[in-house]
Automatic annotation (TrEMBL):
Membrane-crossing residue ranges in chain numbering: none
Cellular component terms (Gene Ontology): cell envelope
InterPro entries: Imelysin-like (IPR018976), Imelysin_sf (IPR038352)
Signal peptide region: none
Coiled coil: none
Pfam families: Peptidase_M75
Protein name from the UniProt record: Imelysin-like domain-containing protein
Chain ranges of the Imelysin-like domain: 49-401
Length: 425
């Protein structure tokens, strides 16, 4: 089964003058100084992708280790350590989201690891722990999906892939960060704060096993652990394959991006930065829940981690623009092409990115201080609304400026319409 499908690149709209505009701008601004090599800028971009997917993979492996401890030797401390590992693993993945939309196969793959929204009631109990036996994945041993009956007595990675492939409801897919998040935190009753799933949901003896506040058969706790183990194993497996796609090796997509048509490569890179800034962060993840005031529309709602993920996704945009890995910028990056093409515009982009970072850092600090996303969007929280609105405006400004950079480089309009539409946010 090919799980990361990379066909021949889909042609994008091409600029009339192409990168000749960049060369001409460099001569005008810098005399006879040649422009930075676009291939080197694209290699820096590829290097960031590879580094962040490798970091996400390392985080997922650590999470897998912590989950194994929780399932095999359940305790309050084991639950705490597994939750902390999830938060650590979530950060580098969030920084990779700037790759979306420009690279079609990333969007085909994203639902496998970041499907949202999900239906928690498909996986396990919600609210007060009351469930009908046979309804959730935790309790049933026969699952009916798309006219087929799957034997769920033995839970493994293959079973998860089968459910994912057969499900007709995109919210009923038990894979990825959010399914794992739900099994670690559970659903919070009033929609605010983090879930409070007790560690006893994984207890191995009949006197201790629970489903929330209710006593439960030991088989439910054991099956809950089996599903969680399979989910983390699949997440590691998916990230291993995606990281390999960006390696600097002949035959990989990352290698072809660097050594192929530079105009096409730059278009793809900028489309991601532009679209994730505006459509994903500003529109879907801030404006939509801010307008509705519905906490359940926020990603990372089970863990109350939305404020951190917003900042990390924005920091990823910065990293790809500056070619920055571990705080160190690459010698040649997209930012260097911008400075040679239009120094004034490049300065505006620098300031816009810094403003976005500053404003989302305030949102993160509010979350860390106890005002998570659900609290910030509460109807009576005027200051919270202002913090989010300021961040939303900054994201839209940086998106518009990055779009102008495409024109300055002679790439033509940056049109992400070729990207597949999916329900992940």
């Amino acid at each position: 089964m090919t799980l990361i499908n990379i066909p021949s690149p889909v042609p994008l709209q091409r600029g009339l003058t192409g990168l000749a505009t960049l060369a001409a701008a460099a001569v005008t601004a810098c005399g006879t100084q040649p422009p930075p090599d676009p291939a080197k800028a694209l290699d820096s971009y590829r290097s960031v992708a590879y580094a962040e997917y490798r970091a996400a993979l390392a985080g997922a492996r650590d999470l897998q280790t912590r989950v194994k401890t929780l399932v095999r030797s359940p305790s309050a401390e084991a639950m705490t350590q597994a939750r902390r590992a999830w938060r650590r693993a979530r950060a580098p993945y969030s920084r990779t989201e700037a790759l979306r939309f420009g690279h079609w196969f990333v969007d085909e793959w994203v639902p496998r690891v970041n499907r949202w929204p999900i239906d928690p009631g498909f996986i396990d109990y919600t609210d007060d722990g009351e469930i009908e036996d046979g309804f959730t994945l935790v309790t049933t041993e026969r699952l009916h999906v798309a006219g087929r009956t799957l034997d769920t007595r033995s839970v493994d990675r293959r079973l998860l892939l089968d459910i994912q492939a057969l499900s007709m409801d995109p919210t009923q897919v038990p894979t990825g960060y959010h399914a794992i998040e739900f099994l670690l935190w559970g659903q919070h009753r009033d929609g605010s704060g983090a879930g409070q799933r007790p560690w006893t949901d994984y207890a191995l003896d009949s006197s201790t096993c629970t489903s929330g506040p209710r006593a439960a058969p030991t088989r439910h706790c054991r099956r809950r652990g089996q599903w969680l183990l399979a989910m983390t194993e699949l997440l590691v497996w998916e990230l291993e394959r995606m990281a390999a796609v960006w390696a600097d090796k002949p035959g990989t997509y990352g290698y072809r991006l660097v050594h192929g048509d530079p105009e096409l490569g730059l278009q793809r890179a900028l489309i991601g930065l532009v679209t994730v800034s505006s459509d994903i962060l500003a529109d879907r993840r801030i404006e939509t829940p801010l307008h509705s005031r519905r906490p359940e529309q926020a990603q990372d709602q089970f863990s109350n981690n939305t404020h951190a993920s917003l900042l990390n996704t924005a920091l990823g945009i910065e990293q790809f623009y500056y070619g920055r890995i571990d705080g160190k910028a690459a010698p040649v990056a997209l930012a260097d092409l911008a400075r040679h093409a239009d120094a004034n515009l490049a300065g505006q982009i620098d300031r816009a990115l810094a403003t976005t970072r500053r404003r989302l850092t305030r949102v993160q600090r509010a979350g860390d201080a106890g005002q998570g996303f659900a609290q910030l969007i509460a109807p009576d929280n005027v200051e919270g609304s202002r913090l989010l609105a300021d961040a939303m405006i900054a994201l839209r400004v940086q998106s518009a400026l990055l779009s102008r950079l495409g024109e300055a480089l002679g790439l033509g309009p940056l049109d992400p319409s070729f990207a597949s539409d999916n329900s992940t946010s």
